Amino acid sequence: MRHAILVIGYGNHADILKQTLQVLNDKDIDFYIHWDKRYPLPDLNSVKIKGKIIFVKPRIAVKWGSYSLIKALLLLLKKLDHTKYDYIHLISSNDLPLMTVKYFKEYFSSDFYIGFHDPVTQDDINRLRYVYPNDMDFRKHKIIAKGILHINKLFHINKLKKFNISNIKKGPQWFSLKSKYVPKLLNYENQNIFKNCYCGDELFVQTIFHRLDNGKHIKDDNAEAARYIDWDRGEPYTFKDTDVSELKEKINSNFAFVRKVNDTKVGKELFGL
Fold first, then answer.
1. CB 153 within 8 A of CB 265
2. Is residue 137, in this structure, part of any structural domain at all?
3. What's the pLDDT at 180?
4. What integer is the mean pLDDT of 233-254?
5. Range of the domain at 46
6. Whole-angstrom distance, CA of residue 97 vs CA of residue 104
7. Cα angle value 30/34/36 (rounded, 5°)
8. 13: alpha, beta or left, given left = phi > 0 and alpha = psi -120 to 50?
9. Domain contains 80
10. Closest CA to 76 of 99, 106, 98, 56
11. Is the model's pLDDT at 218 over the cut of 70?
12. Which stretch of 6-15, 76-85, 208-217, 257-266 has the lowest confidence by average pLDDT?
């Protein structure tokens, strides 16, 4: 089967992404990369892979919690010819595979690997209901974000008046799915509800595929998406070389990627890179 890895990347280096390229080095695996325009494009020429590396243009500044995260995903999906692939996978440049390339190519069989977090709260719905700036980094401007929230409440803003809010679902931004569903993501009729939102990236895919949420889920919505992510030790936790023993137990299991990793020692010890 053929796979397209969609990467939302940022920073002045791409050391972890280079390791991902090495682990998933196969003629049937291509990489589509959107790199934040605030940083120079990474030089990946030192990694010789059998698949293709395609950088997506135009590049935008991707800011935490803003619509720009969804926009970056849409740019990646538009660049992709989904008919050439069996599966697509969205990762960040700080995600590492937890599967060998052979296991990775043989593992996927379901249509969707999307996580759903239950229950959806009123605060989750308000992320889409209220109007926020499209290009603000909410993590850096928490006080301003709170002020905007109060203004929305004061004026009873509701851009979901014509939308069935029971269809709003939440979960991890990262996912894997069969490529035949890409048009559903690109052509979703209610695309506008995600503009001017707050942390809408955790609602986008789940809301579009809301019918998949039957309320019968495993405890970990990240595991539903085949991602190993720890929200108990961090927001999320950054895995270190001291966690290698823990991660080795997850190799070639039900986790395709671990998020997140900054230290290349992790990849070296996991895969002998």
1. no
2. no
3. 97
4. 96
5. 3-118+170-190+198-271
6. 9
7. 155
8. beta
9. yes
10. 56
11. no
12. 208-217
